[in-house]
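Bench log. Compound arrived from synthesis this morning; before running ITC I wanted a structural hypothesis for how tetrahydrodeoxyuridine sits in the protein. Inputs:
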Amino acid sequence: MPDKVSEYVLQQLRTAAMSALENAYAPYSLYPVAAALLTTQGKIVQGCNIENAAYPSGLCAEASAIAQLVSSSGYQRIRAVYVLCAADEPAWPCGSCRQRLNEFADPELEVYAATQNGILQRADFIDLFPHSFGPANLRGGEK
Ligand code: THU
């Protein structure tokens, strides 16, 4: 099993996600979500869900965090993602966001799913998104 990020880094991810959760714009679902990403270079960025009156135009927290990462720093591999929600049960990334994460995923990408009230679950991304279609398919196998 890949190494886990340290407890210290996990707390940094939680702090970043907590701050983004305050900015979540979820007036339709009333389901605020935040995501914090850790890159292999040690950068942490955060995002939140941003809903829209035209529902399909809404953005998931993971998607907004990836947009923040790439627009601020360009391409970096994602080593950990921390998804924080205000509900009683944690939320795992949706199918579309698994595909989005896959584009930037370090082979050891860890996924943490947490609630505000202290539930924390963990999975290896490879177990959440096996047999994926990704960059290697379009680059003749190069990762
Ligand atoms: N949502 C996320 O932002 N991330 C997830 O991992 C699950 C779902 C958002 C999308 C929508 O704004 C709300 O949660 C309800 O689906």
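What the model suggests: The chain has one domain: 7-137. Residues 28 and 55 are 8 Å apart (CA to CA).
ITC booked for Thursday regardless.
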